[in-house]
Each structure stands twice: as structure tokens, then as C-alpha cells.
Design brief:
With about 500 residues, the protein is an alpha/beta fold. Helices cover about 20% and strands about 15% of the residues.
């Protein structure tokens, strides 16, 4: 019996060895690389002490896990051929220092790429431009210090970008402003980097659904009041980027560079920042304004507006002064004073609901446009020119009071009041010493002429300004000596009538 059991046991052991060899050959025939575990279209080569991508790779591979290995360089030829079914590539914890700009040309349908926990130092130009269908990109815990603005070109479907725990001192936020380069981006993690300042105005101008997923905690930011106002408003809006990491949202307070909580800067020394309030939208009578519903919900299934008068606007369009637009904004035409107040925008999403309030202040006057400003400037210029002309007429064309008086000739005709003299001259035409109008004109005596000459054109008394005596038996009387104070008196005392 014992002798019979020996050959049977040996035969059984031989059958087991043959089965193992056949299984291994079957796996090799199916294309599963050595040191990897293959399950259908999933290849797990994690912790296999690999220094390069194993070959051969089955063309039907959908998920390739190469994490926790020693693959330090990812060249352009790492894949032997086009992997049209690959949608997830995991390369974390490999000590990667180099990734070729053509490394992803063979995997055009990749949607998930994990390059985290490596030693990458820069994101070069057009590094990911071949991944038009990429949705999630993990680059956290590297040594990235430089980010080229074209590194994320052609990533129209990218939704989540993780860049935390790197050495980034400046990130090209212009990729987010216009919303055309990364239109689907909903999460950008820039926490635990080396950002020292933030473009507050640009960040505040981003849509709320993008600010809700913009993580900036753990950076050595310099404390100031605009920074406090930015995050205080985000906190009031209950944005996740502030609520989830409120304790780690800190800044460095000069001069000792002491870290303090950003939200604790309001009303405290030494900055003593004022309370952050939502901006009030200001307009004028007759204006047309658009109230935006800046919700943090990306997918909105229903939306409605409620006016200060309690009117509910649910449907798009409208014939009145208030109309609901296709993008959810509310347009108000021909504003009236009663249109001012608080407007409420209620939105409903697949999971959450949100209500936003917009304060509208309508001023009780109309705002002049550019054409009115031009007309006002033209009117002012014409008025100035006319004033200068009147002054020149007054200085050079006003007739001299005694230029027509001639000694020894016929008597001058009586001087009547004129419209021109009453407008342009401040000197009265009536002489207290002159004879009555009905009597013939008599020449004034020398004493009266001298007394009259002692007064200037504008009725100012001239000290020492008496004219020289006229020559005896002269055919004509000499012209009076000009008064040096006459020009200054015109500009000091004479009003300009326009």
C-alpha cells in the first residue's frame, strides 16, 4: 500500500507542475507582463520593483497601475503601440524626474492621469496637449516650481487639477479668467505652495462655482485687508474652499512674519480691517442693468427671481421692464426709483439649493453720456472765446471820452447814453457839473477836466495821475495820458457779461 501511494503522489505532483506551467504559458499568451496581475482589462504592476514600463502591454488594457516602482523617466516610446482603450494611468511614487512632451501621444483617450508623489520640477510647454479627453490630473507632492501657461492647452474636458504641495510661486491664473482654455475646470488645488500674494480683483471676478473649488490654504501669503475681504466674502457665501480648510487659511503678519488666521483680521490690530460687505450695484434713472445670479452650483435644474415688490419671475423672456435671460441673469430696463431694493435669486441643483441676494441702488438723477460731456465742453469753449472777444472790444474799441473834443473848434455835440457804453463800461455818462440838456453845450473848464481825468475808466481814483496841461493856442487838444492801471482795473473790477 505504501509503495502504491508513492507513485500516485509523484504523479499528482507532476500534474500540478504541468498545470502551473500551462497557466503561466496561458497568461503569457494572453499578454500579461511578468510581475503584474491581470484581471480582465486591468493591469496591476504596483510594487513590482520595476525600472521601466513592462512589455508586452495588451492592447485592450483600460487601467494600468504602475505606482510604487522605480520608473524615473517616461519616454515617448514607453508604449509599444497605440493603447486606444486605456483611460486610467497610475504612475505615482516612482521618483519620476522626466516626462516627454510626446509621452501621451499613444493614449489619446486617457481620462485619469496620476503623476503625484514624484520628483517633477517643471511643467513644460504643451506637456498634456495630446490628452483632449483628460478629466482628472494629479500632480500633487512633486517639486514643481515652473508652470508654463501652455502646459494645459487643449484640455477642454479637464475638471480637476491637483497641484498642492509643490514649489509654485506663481500660477498663470489667466487660464481661468476668460473660461475658454479650461472651460470645465471645477477644482484647482494650489494649497501648500509658495504663493506670497494673490490677484484679489481677478479672483473675485471668477464665477462662484469655480471659486468654490479653488483651494489656496497653506501658502505664505502676506496679510493685508484686501486678502481678508476676499476670503471673508467667500466664507459668507459658504464656499467649500474656505469652509473645509478654515483653520489652515493663514497669512504672515509683518514685520515678524507671524502666521495668523486670515478670517481673524477683521477689526483686530494691527491691520484693523473693516467688515467685508457684498458690493451694492448702483445705477441711475432710465438705465438698463443686468443682475447676475452667481451661484456656486454648477448644474442648475430650476431658477427664479423675486423682485423687491414680491413679483416672481420664472420664465425666460418677458415684455415688461424685467426680463429673465437664458443664462439666469435678470435684465431691468428704464430703471425707476421703485425698482431699487433687494432682489432674490433662488436656484435648485441636483443635490443642493441656494438663494442669492443682490442689492440694487437707483440714484434719483440720470447719468450723462459721453455725447453730453462733449456738448458741455463745446459750450464752455464758446463761452470762453466770447468772453475774450468782449474784453478786447472793451479795451480797444471803446471810444475815448475826449478824443472828439477840440480846443478852439466848434463845440462837440452832447453825448447821449448808448447801449454799448452801458454794457461794456462801468463809468457813468452823466456829469454832475454838465449843464442841462436843453441848454447849449459849454466847454468844461480846465479844473473840471482835470478833476474828471483824475478818475479812471472804471471810476477808480488815480493818485498822481493828472494829465499834462494842453499847449496854448494849439489847433487841437492833446490826447490824455494813458493810465497804466487801466488794464489791471478791467480784469479786477469789470464784470464780464456773456
Amino acid at each position: 500500500m505504501r509503495g502504491g501511494r508513492g507513485p500516485a503522489a509523484a504523479l499528482l505532483l507532476l500534474l500540478l507542475l504541468l498545470a502551473a506551467v500551462a497557466l503561466r504559458r496561458g497568461r503569457a499568451a494572453a499578454g500579461c507582463p511578468p510581475r503584474c496581475v491581470c484581471a480582465s482589462n486591468i493591469l496591476s504592476c504596483s510594487q513590482a520593483v520595476l525600472t521601466g514600463v513592462p512589455v508586452p502591454l495588451p492592447r485592450f488594457t483600460a487601467v494600468l497601475d504602475l505606482s510604487h516602482n522605480n520608473v524615473s523617466r517616461l519616454r515617448a516610446d514607453w508604449a509599444p503601440g497605440r493603447l486606444a482603450h486605456l483611460h486610467s494611468l497610475l504612475l505615482s511614487h516612482n521618483g519620476l524626474t522626466f516626462v516627454s512632451t510626446e509621452a501621451f501621444a499613444h493614449v489619446p483617450h486617457l481620462r485619469h492621469l496620476d503623476l503625484s508623489s514624484n520628483r517633477l520640477r517643471a511643467l513644460d510647454e504643451n506637456l498634456f496637449s495630446d490628452l483632449a479627453e483628460l478629466e482628472v490630473l494629479l500632480l500633487y507632492n512633486n517639486e514643481i516650481a515652473a508652470v508654463d501657461r501652455t502646459a494645459f492647452e487643449n484640455l477642454a474636458r479637464l475638471r480637476k487639477l491637483y497641484l498642492s504641495q509643490n514649489h509654485i510661486a506663481r500660477f498663470p491664473l489667466e487660464l481661468l479668467k476668460d473660461g475658454t482654455r479650461l472651460p470645465q475646470l471645477a477644482l484647482l488645488d494650489l494649497s501648500a505652495n509658495r504663493l506670497k500674494s494673490l490677484p484679489v480683483a481677478e479672483l473675485q471676478g471668477l464665477p462662484a462655482w469655480l471659486r468654490d473649488g479653488l483651494y489656496l490654504h497653506g501658502n505664505p501669503l502676506a496679510c493685508d485687508c484686501p486678502l481678508y475681504e476676499l476670503f471673508a466674502r467667500w466664507h459668507r457665501r459658504q464656499l467649500s474652499a474656505v469652509l473645509d480648510f478654515q483653520e489652515e487659511l493663514r497669512c504672515l503678519l509683518p514685520p515678524a512674519k507671524k502666521p495668523v488666521g486670515i478670517l481673524a483680521l477683521g477689526g483686530h490690530e494691527p491691520l484693523n480691517c473693516s467688515e467685508a460687505k457684498e458690493a451694492v450695484l448702483e445705477a441711475h434713472l432710465g438705465d438698463t442693468v443686468t443682475l447676475g445670479c452667481d451661484t456656486r452650483l454648477r448644474a442648475v435644474s430650476a431658477r427664479e427671481w423675486v423682485t423687491p415688490a414680491g413679483e416672481r419671475l420664472l420664465e425666460e423672456g418677458g415684455n415688461g421692464s424685467a426680463a429673465l435671460l437664458a443664462n439666469g441673469s435678470l435684465r431691468l430696463r428704464a430703471l425707476r426709483l421703485e425698482d431699487g431694493g433687494t432682489y432674490a435669486c433662488s436656484v435648485a441643483g441636483p443635490v443642493l439649493n441656494e438663494t442669492l441676494y443682490v442689492e440694487l441702488l437707483v440714484h434719483n438723477f440720470t447719468l450723462h453720456g459721453p455725447h453730453d460731456t462733449l456738448n458741455t465742453a463745446y459750450t464752455t469753449l464758446v463761452g470762453c472765446i466770447l468772453s475774450v472777444v468782449l474784453v478786447l472790444i472793451y479795451l480797444y474799441l471803446t471810444p475815448c471820452r475826449c478824443c472828439c473834443c477840440r480846443a478852439g473848434d466848434k463845440a462837440a455835440a452832447p453825448r447821449d447814453d448808448s447801449i454799448a457804453s452801458s454794457v461794456l463800461s462801468a463809468t457813468p455818462n452823466h456829469n454832475a457839473e454838465a449843464p442841462a440838456p436843453k441848454e447849449p453845450f459849454r466847454p468844461r473848464s480846465a479844473s473840471s477836466s482835470a478833476a474828471a481825468a483824475a478818475w479812471g475808466q472804471n471810476g477808480k481814483f488815480k493818485a498822481g495821475g493828472a494829465p499834462e496841461p494842453a499847449a496854448k493856442e494849439a489847433p487841437k487838444a492833446q490826447r490824455k495820458m494813458s493810465d497804466p492801471d487801466s488794464v489791471s482795473s478791467v480784469f479786477s473790477d469789470t464784470p464780464i457779461v456773456v
